[in-house]
Specification:
The protein has a six-stranded mixed beta sheet. Strands 2-1-4-5 form a four-stranded antiparallel beta sheet, with no helix packed on it. A two-stranded antiparallel ribbon has the order 7-8. Helices cover about 65% and strands about 10% of the residues. With about 575 residues, the protein is an alpha/beta fold. The longest helix is centred in the N-terminal third of the chain and has 50 residues, at about 50-100.
Length: about 575
Amino acid sequence: MIKLLAKSIREYKLPSILAPLCVTVEVVMEVLLPFLMADLIDNGVNKSDMNHIITSGLILAGVAFAALAFGILSGKFAAEASAGFAKNLRHDMFYKIQEYSFVNIDKFSSSSLVTRLTTDITNVQNAYQMIIRVAIRAPFMMIFAMIMSFSVNAQLSWVFVAFIPVIALALGLVIRFAHPVFSRVFKTYDKLNNVVQENLHGIRVVKSFVREEHEVKKFSDISDRIYKDFSKAEKTVAFNMPIMQVCIYTCIIIISWISARQIVFGTMTTGQLISMMTYVFQILMSLMFISMIMVMVVLSRASAERIAEVLNEKLDLKNCDDPIKEVKDGSILFENVSFSYSKKEDNLCLKNINLSIKSGETIGIIGGTGSSKSSLVQLIPRLYDVTKGSIKVGGEDVRSYDIETIRDSVAMVLQKNVLFSGTIKENLRWGDPDASDDDIKRVCRLAQADDFIERMPDKYDTYIEQGGTNVSGGQRQRLCIARALLKKPKILILDDSTSAVDTKTDKLIRKAFLEEIPDTTKIIIAQRISSVQDADKIIVMDKGTIADIGTHEELLARNPIYSEVYNSQRKGSEE
């Protein structure tokens, strides 16, 4: 895990090295200060030697200034290295997520990925900064101060050594009991973010059903769980401080008692006592910092493990060796295709699908809820891989194409239409970043979107709010269709994408498709028979299988599912 995360340091290796180097010099300077102070007192002040006092004072000032300068530099380099490391780590995680297939994304909830990209990375960033600065400073300070204290008075120095095992045992127990709780807390954070995200996304539904109290209770329940878990973890960590204080004050009392006796008997000087007391505080403060570092490491370890899960996730979809870079045409062939989201053959949602579609044909698909209409079309651009069988586009298996190539040749307008914050032009140029204004207006005419855009105050420069909340459902659908057309795809898939537009507009869109993009294969999933009745072929789906294929007249004459849907819709329109 450490090796994996360390790959994200990259261009920040130099400040990551300079920070501990500066810390080391800073520590050496600080450890020299008590020694020089003792010399000034014993050989300068006590002997009234002004020359020695001035010389030692200047040396002390120089060493103190050097310690300050290197301390500032170490802080600067540590901040630069940790912030850069977090930036690269966030970059690597986000790019990894972009490569995920739907199967990979389904494994992690969106709220969990957001938590990992924010809170978890912040924890790791803070830990990294402490590791390259404080985690170097504290042990070095303890070791150097211990060496100097032994050179001043070995008998007193053994008091420090006696307390180290006690402190180490206490730290070990804190780490052992705190880490599982912190791991649990971050999983609960995922659930909290999910509740908040879901609530904000569906706030109109929440308010229309007056379910604010229910949502508040959901939030409060999860928030209380985080509070209890964090309280438990912090209570465990809190034991660290009193144990440290007991050790520190006990150590000071023992050293004070022994040193007082030695001064009385003349085996220790005043300067040595002052330097020893300074070294006592340096050593014990170092131990306290080490304990703080260990707590931070415990906290960040849980976050680091969650980050590593994202980076280590094996991609479900990969390019084959020497992939094909061009799709010849929009012909589609399903050969004995079966599919399961769980990859288990005993839980198939599509079963033995055999289907041949010629390039340029218009295909309609109807079927009840749960008949796997969307699952069928999502296999074409390889958003998922088939469990059994094969799908060929342009005469080649979709798995033999470069993933970007096959997806760039297939434009999908999904059931859930998504627009991003930005102008209408910026949203439409997702289909083609280099599209001209004329190209944009052309596809908007095809999608019957130009009329309402022209009525907007800023026309094509009108700003779209996040999720397209400032346009209607029908307008959002037409903008998404226009965006898909801008790709100039060989295959166009509309997954119930005209459900929010009226039948007249729906008919105009289909008429424009027939006249303007005759060579593009068009697959239309719809609930309304009127949306597909003019198609070259209509596929009737039922429970993950193809129940029938034919024209509108053929299906009306022989297929009970199709005729029942047609008659019920016709009756409903007459009423």
